[in-house]
Amino acid sequence: MNILITGGAGFIGSHVVRHFVNTYPSYHIYNLDKLTYAGNLQNLKTIENAANYTFLKGDILDEQFLMAVFIKYKFDGVIHLAAESHVDRSITDPLSFVKTNVLGTVNLLNVAKNTWQSDFSNKRFYHISTDEVYGSLGETGLFTETTAYDPNSPYSASKASSDHFVRAYGETYQLPFVISNCSNNYGPNHFPEKLIPLFINNIINNKALPVYGDGNYTRDWLYVIDHAIAIDLVFHKGKNKATYNIGGFNEWKNIDLVKLLCQLMDKKLGRTQGSSEKLITYVKDRPGHDLRYAIDANKIRTELGWTPTVTFEQGLAKTIDWYFDNQDWLDNVISKEYLNYYQKQYNL
Ligand code: NAD
Ligand code: DAU
């Protein structure tokens, strides 16, 4: 099989690419990525010379480029992760999210349809989406696959829109597709604009930890490698036109998670317990901040036999260790662009 993975130089994409390259030596994996600020080929060092791997630098908005690679490499399947992914950036620059997440996805769908349409058999377009499309939960309840879409941020609205287009291509043109909607991932190679890696980096550097609002927002955390394993299962065994919710069965209020992280980091750094907690700084809330996300992952568990393999305690320890062992990775991503973004976002 020739498989196209888009966004494979990003956080989740790089774990998915590595997983497929190592698990399926008989497949050829093509990683198409524009290398935006979030894309980093350093994430793929361990497999960059593998015989069954090819990197294609390109933009999912570039129709001619997409046509050329679809014709040349005759992809059997697409796993589409390329996206603008950070909620705070979508609040300051919504149009970039519409361009990449909506127009880019439609462009990719069109090219897949046009190059595959003589024979859709054994083809599959797998769209990777988020639980944020369902909007916000109150104190109770879980998102299921039939929860109505109710996005609140420009990011989640753009992902919801892309999900609708994928489904529409399935209904209108019979393009074979599958979608999964996952909760918050964490782990190695996570860009330090997101909560966990941002706070690990700030604790190392004794910088303020900017907690939005009162910190009583809840997220459901999943170790990124467990997401990659779920993606493998859905790609190979998921039903055509189905949606699968993926989550960690692991809800944490932000403030409790931050306090746990502070304790683990104090231990790792040999600092007195309590010293990192002093860095917690309550800052202005995120506009439209969703109160709580929590996934009901029973469908993927019962239908495909997937469950998370890594506990939160194990995953967080592995993640902290990775950032300590890969300080050069952190140093490289903390570029001028990152510092400009940081200054504008936090002014701390
Ligand atoms: P990321 O921001 O780390 O990576 C995105 C990748 O897409 C980068 O490598 C970037 O260079 C590439 N890209 C961006 N625009 C592109 C374009 N126009 N053409 C080609 N490549 C482009 O994102 P992530 O956190 O790894 O998320 C990957 C996917 O998973 C996204 O679709 C996101 O919506 C979804 N998702 C993420 C999470 C999470 O917790 N991070 C949870 C659920 C779903
Ligand atoms: O739920 C899946 C989604 O999870 C993905 O679709 C997104 O791509 C991914 O970025 C993530 O979105 P969140 O907005 O939940 O993640 P983030 O790490 O930005 O924030 C997690 C929580 O922490 C959220 O309630 C906001 C809060 N937060 C975040 C930052 C960056 C803070 O309190 N302070 C911060 O500085």
Explain what you see:
This protein folds into 2 domains: 2-186 and 221-246, NAD(P)-binding Rossmann-like Domain (Rossmann fold, 3-Layer(aba) Sandwich); 195-218 and 251-287 and 310-339, UDP-galactose 4-epimerase, domain 1. With 348 residues, it is an alpha/beta fold. The model has no long low-confidence stretch (mean pLDDT 97). It has helices at 11-23, 63-73, 87-92, 94-116, 154-173, 195-204, 224-237, 254-269, 298-304, 312-325, 327-333, 336-346; strands at residues 2-6, 28-33, 53-57, 77-80, 124-130, 177-182, 184-186, 209-212, 218-223, 243-246, 251-253, 280-283. The site of 2'deoxy-thymidine-5'-diphospho-alpha-D-glucose (DAU) has 19 residues, from helix 6 and strand 8. 2'deoxy-thymidine-5'-diphospho-alpha-D-glucose (DAU) is lined by residues 85-87, 130-132, 183-184, 194-195, 198, 210-212, 217, 219, 254, 286, 293.
